[in-house]
Amino acid sequence: MISVYQLKPKFQQLLRPLVSGLANAGVTANQVTVVAMLLSIATGAVILWQQSLVWFYLLPIVLFIRMALNAIDGMLAREHDQKSTLGAYLNEFGDVISDVALLLPLAILPGISIELLAGFIFMAMMVEFVGVIAPMVGKERQYQGPMGKSDRALVLGLLGMTLPLWPIVGTYLNYLFMGLIILSVVTMVNRVKAAL
Questions:
Q1: Distance from C-alpha of 116 to C-alpha of 191, rounded to nearest angstrom
Q2: φ, ψ for residue 7, nearest 5 deg
Q3: Distance (Å, rounded) from C-alpha 174 to C-alpha 119?
Q4: Rounded-to-integer distance, Cα 94 and Cα 40, Å
Q5: What is the 3-state secondary structure (H, E, C) of 76-137?
Q6: What is the CATH number of the domain that holds 183?
Q7: pLDDT per residue over 33-54, tens digit each?
Q8: Residues 6+ apart with CB under 8 A from 43
Q9: Which end of the chain is more exposed for a tag (fewer CB within 10 A), N or C?
Q10: 184 near 126, Cβ under 8 Å?
Q11: Rounded to whole angstroms, what are the CA distances from 164 to 25, 32, 54, 55, 167?
Q12: How many domains does the chain have?
């Protein structure tokens, strides 16, 4: 199934000169991973603290930066001999923490079902968990869609752009969450199938 993740190779090509410069400057993959996680936590905290829709405009900006940082840390690790066990833990742990931090602010929207939001956050974690299990059975880490990390970022970024402009969109979010949960289940099935 198609996924935003499939665009990653082209995005990496654009970032390669920057990655080389960072490597030459002594920046490590783990440092980039931590920065991406802290940026996500700070963004989520600001939106929750301000309790205003206008702050949702931060989401598409931060999600784009986070996507770039995620690509950069991976390229530093693979192409500049910075792979480490700690890096693997930070990468997976950081992605889950970042997702939760950026999804939680949706709870401030009126009429939102906390149960459905929590269900989607849980499914987001389960999707990544299923992908991480693959190496335990001798396969590569699985990234299939249709609702992987990049796809969630796209949905959240679009919400960040539309909610301040058209708050009425928020009244349909519970239906969106139902659909996203179903797509997450499909993603889990796709990842399990690919690893079998």
A1: 23
A2: -85, -5
A3: 11
A4: 9
A5: HHHHCCCCCHHHHHHHHHHHHHHHHHHHHHHHHCCCCCHHHHHHHHHHHHHHHHHHHHHHHH
A6: 1.20.120.1760
A7: 999 999 999 999 999 999 999 9
A8: 58, 59, 62, 101, 102
A9: C
A10: yes
A11: 39, 30, 5, 8, 6
A12: 1
Amino acid identity of 161? M
pLDDT at 10: 80
How do residues 165-185 score in pLDDT, each as one tens digit? 999 999 999 999 999 999 999
Distance CA(62)–CA(117), nearest Å, equals: 20
Would the pLDDT of 9 be above 90? Answer: no
Determine the structural domain holding residue 173 and report its residue range: 4-195
